[in-house]
Amino acid sequence: MSDKVLNVIVTYNRLNDLKVCVENVKRQTYTNLDILVVNNGSTDGTTEYLTAQTDIKVINQDNLGGAGGFFAGMKYMMDNGYEWLWMMDDDGIPDSNQLETLIDFNKKTNFVFLNALVIDKDDHKKLAFGPLNGHKYIYVDDVTKNEDFDVMIYPFNGTLIKREVIEKIGLIKKECFIWGDEQEYTARARRAGYVAHTVTTAIHYHPTEKGRKGRVSPGFSHKNVLVKPKQLSHYFYRNQGYIDHTYNNYHHIFTKFIIRNSVYFIRTGQFEELCKLFKYYIRGWHNNYENS
């Protein structure tokens, strides 16, 4: 099988961002690829724009979230014989040689779960998402000393996954909807023996982290509490419950999520959100995704 790549872009009501993303994919120095846009029920002219494109494959579906979008793209990739899946949201901007750099890194190392280095699109000295998994990396220079950086990855932003991985561990958990599908899939791959690697010479630009860190007062802050919009936060709690029960140890569960979030909501008087945290976290713990 050739190294044919399917690029999957998931979009929802961000037409201007989508156009920029698509144009930068088309400028890739690696040209053995097709572009598939999964349109999650956009109402901003995206459907009409995609209809006019003759060199882009399109799946139009209801809004099934990022997880449902990437699930559809991954399934299309497997059903149509592609060797690689290259994934991104519509607001990401891949550097022109990103894909070629990832493919070349695979040829040197045989690693099959690769990610670009995700940089703040407005400040190229900083990483787009800041600290991750206990690591305190903020600046690009902190992580570019080595081309291969395997302790930090920001899927699904410029993520390249080989067919063999998907054949072994299956498709994305589409029920996650948002906030957790990428974490779950990476953990599942790791459990199967695949280590995710960030290739620091492959660059992906992205808006800075949207979820703000919780801060209560000058004397009290929770840097690791990620505050989500309340109308959607139940997805976050539910998915974290599933991930913790399936992949994480109890130290992580009670110190990094339950205790920190609970204390934050109590100190800020968000008792309704506290109740929601426990309700949906327990649902996720039991893999209960019905009526969520």
What does this structure look like?
This protein has 292 residues and is of the alpha/beta class. It contains 9 helices and 11 strands. The strands form 2 sheets. Strands 1, 2, 3, 4, 5, 6, 7, 8 and 9 form a 9-stranded mixed beta sheet that branches. A two-stranded antiparallel ribbon has the order 10-11. Strand 10 and strand 11 (220-227) form a beta hairpin. Helix 7 packs antiparallel against helix 8 (250-267), helix 7 crosses helix 9 and helix 8 (250-267) runs antiparallel to helix 9. The chain is globular, with a radius of gyration of 19 Å. It starts with a strand and ends in a 7-residue tail after the last helix. Residues 214-222 have low confidence and may be disordered.
What keywords describe this structure?
292 residues; 11 strands; 38% helix; globular; alpha/beta; 9 helices; two-stranded antiparallel ribbon; single chain
How is the secondary structure organized here?
Blueprint lengths: L4 E7 L3 H12 L6 E8 L5 H6 L5 E5 L3 H15 L4 E6 L3 E2 L3 H12 L3 E8 L27 E2 L9 E4 H7 L11 H11 L5 E10 L5 E6 L2 E8 L5 H15 L2 H18 L3 H15 L7
Parallel strand pairs: 1-2, 1-4, 2-3, 6-9
Antiparallel strand pairs: 4-8, 5-9, 6-8, 7-9, 10-11
Helix pairs in contact: 7-8, 7-9, 8-9
